C-alpha cells in the first residue's frame, strides 16, 4: 500500500514551496503533488518536508572511529545519525599507509554489509582522505605516513575489485609528484577526486580541475590560503564552477562571515559536511581519530593534544542551522546538505523529492530541528517516540577522562 506524506511546505528542487505531498511506494517516491493533500495522507501540520541529508565526510561518531570499526560500531553510528536528519553518509578514513588504508576500507565495507535491515542511516562506500596529501598542510594527519600517488599505490586501490566498486571519493594534493596523473586515473575509474590537505597554487588547483578533480575537501582548512595575488586552493575553488566546495559549518573551522562569503560567491556549489569524528555525540573526553588521540573539551571542538583542530563534533542538522544563522537562505542551506552532496558523489536518486528518488525524508520543525525521518519510506526516527529498542544500543563505555590542562589552543587547522 502506498504511503502519502503531506506538508505545508516542502523543498522541491532548490526552492521551498507548498503545500505539497509525496507518494511513496516500495521505498521510492512515485509522485509529488503540489496543492491540497488527498484524504489518505499523513498530514504534517506545520514545519517543512525535505529530502534526507547526505554527509560525504564522516570519520566516525558516538565513540566509534571508522579506522577501527566493527559491525557493532557501524550499527551504532547508523542508528545515531537519523535524529540529526542524516539518512546517507560516506565513511571517511584518514591518512595511513596504503596497505593499511585498504585493510581499513575492507573493514568498513564488511561492517556496512553486516548492518541489519532498517538499522538507520546507510553508508555509501568509502572516502579515503589520504595518504596522498601534502606534509605542508597536514592538519592532524601524520606527515610521516603521507606518500606520493604512484602507479603502484593506485594499483592497490583500483585493482582491488571490492574496493574499486566502493571507493567513492579520494582526497589528495594534486601538486605532489604523480598527482595530476592520479587525478586522471581515479576520475577515469569513476572516483570523485577532491583537492585537500594541499599546498597547491591556484594554477595547480585549476590544472587539477582540468585533469578531473571535482571537489575541494573542507574549504579553507589545511590548504594554501586565499591571497589577493595568489588565489591558492580556495580562490580558484570559489570561481571555478567545476568544483563542489565541502564546508565544515561549525563556525570554528570557518568563521561566520567567511561562511556567508562562500555562499554569496558559490552557494549553488557548497556541500555542507560534518567531518565528524568519534567525539561527535559524546561528552568531553579523549577519543581516537585514525589511531591518534583527539581531545574534546567543553568548547565542543575536537583537537589534537597540541591544539590543532581534529575533525569536528558537528551534526549536519546543526550545520544547516548555523548557515541559516549567518544569513543564508533556508532553501540554499538545505540544498547544501541534500542535493548538492548527492550530486557530487554521483547519486541522482538521493537528496531530492521527485519521482524515482529514494524515499528518504525529513520533517523539520519551525526551528529547523528534525521531528521525523524516513529512510526508504520507513520511519527511522520520530521525536515523539523512543528509539527502536531492536536496534543495537549506542556505546555505553564512557570516554577516557580528559586532563584539559594538556590542551593548547594556540594551533589550528
UniProtKB/TrEMBL annotation:
Pfam family, any one: Amidohydro_1
Keyword Hydrolase: yes
Keyword Metal-binding: yes
CDD domains: NagA
An example Gene Ontology molecular-function term: N-acetylglucosamine-6-phosphate deacetylase activity
Residues of the Amidohydrolase-related domain: 49-379
UniProt-listed InterPro entries: Amidohydro-rel (IPR006680), GlcNAc_6-P_deAcase (IPR003764), Metal-dep_hydrolase_composite (IPR011059), Metal_Hydrolase (IPR032466)
EC number(s) per entry: 3.5.1.25
Alphabetically ordered keywords of this record: Carbohydrate metabolism, Hydrolase, Metal-binding
Similarity field: Belongs to the metallo-dependent hydrolases superfamily. NagA family.
Stated name of the protein: N-acetylglucosamine-6-phosphate deacetylase
Lineage: Bacteria, Bacillati, Actinomycetota, Actinomycetes, Pseudonocardiales
Amino acid at each position: 500500500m502506498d504511503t502519502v506524506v503531506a506538508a505545508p511546505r516542502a523543498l522541491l528542487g532548490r526552492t521551498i514551496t507548498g503545500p505539497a505531498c509525496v507518494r511513496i511506494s516500495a521505498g521510492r517516491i512515485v509522485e509529488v503533488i503540489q496543492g491540497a493533500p488527498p484524504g489518505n495522507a499523513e498530514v504534517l501540520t506545520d514545519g517543512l518536508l525535505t529530502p534526507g541529508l547526505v554527509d560525504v565526510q564522516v570519520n566516525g561518531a558516538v565513540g566509534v572511529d571508522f579506522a577501527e570499526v566493527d559491525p557493532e560500531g557501524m550499527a551504532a553510528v547508523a542508528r545515531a545519525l537519523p535524529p540529526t536528519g542524516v539518512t546517507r553518509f560516506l565513511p571517511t578514513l584518514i591518512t595511513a599507509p596504503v596497505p593499511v588504508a585498504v585493510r581499513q576500507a575492507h573493514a568498513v565495507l564488511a561492517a556496512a554489509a553486516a548492518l541489519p535491515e532498517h538499522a538507520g542511516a546507510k553508508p555509501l562506500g568509502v572516502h579515503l582522505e589520504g595518504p596522498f596529501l601534502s606534509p605542508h598542510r597536514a592538519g592532524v594527519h601524520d606527515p610521516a605516513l603521507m606518500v606520493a600517488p604512484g602507479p603502484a599505490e593506485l594499483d592497490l586501490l583500483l585493482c582491488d575489485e571490492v574496493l574499486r566498486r566502493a571507493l567513492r571519493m579520494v582526497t589528495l594534493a594534486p601538486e605532489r609528484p604523480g598527482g595530476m596523473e592520479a587525478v586522471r586515473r581515479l576520475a577515469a575509474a569513476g572516483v570523485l577526486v577532491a583537492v585537500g590537505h594541499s599546498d597547491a597554487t591556484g594554477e595547480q588547483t585549476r590544472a587539477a580541475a582540468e585533469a578531473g578533480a571535482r571537489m575541494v575537501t573542507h574549504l579553507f582548512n589545511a590548504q594554501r590560503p586565499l591571497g589577493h595575488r595568489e588565489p591558492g586552493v580556495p580562490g580558484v575553488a570559489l570561481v571555478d564552477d567545476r568544483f563542489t566546495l565541502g564546508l565544515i559549518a561549525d563556525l570554528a573551522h570557518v568563521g561566520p562571515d567567511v561562511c556567508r562569503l562562500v555562499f554569496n560567491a558559490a552557494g549553488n556549489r557548497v556541500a555542507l559536511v560534518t567531518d565528524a569524528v568519534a567525539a561527535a555525540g559524546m561528552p568531553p573526553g579523549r577519543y581516537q581519530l585514525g589511531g591518534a588521540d583527539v581531545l574534546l573539551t567543553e568548547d565542543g571542538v575536537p583537537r589534537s593534544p597540541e591544539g590543532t583542530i581534529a575533525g569536528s563534533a558537528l551534526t549536519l542538522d546543526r550545520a544547516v542551522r548555523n548557515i541559516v544563522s549567518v544569513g543564508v537562505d533556508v532553501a540554499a542551506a538545505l540544498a547544501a546538505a541534500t542535493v548538492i552532496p548527492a550530486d557530487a558523489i554521483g547519486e541522482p536518486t538521493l537528496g531530492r523529492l521527485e519521482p524515482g528518488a529514494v524515499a528518504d525524508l525529513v520533517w523539520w520543525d519551525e526551528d529547523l530541528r528534525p521531528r521525523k525521518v524516513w529512510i526508504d519510506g520507513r520511519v527511522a526516527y520520530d521525536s515523539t517516540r523512543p528509539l527502536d529498542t531492536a536496534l543495537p544500543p549506542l556505546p555505553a563505555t564512557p570516554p577516557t577522562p580528559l586532563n584539559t590542562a594538556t590542551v593548547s589552543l594556540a594551533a589550528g587547522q
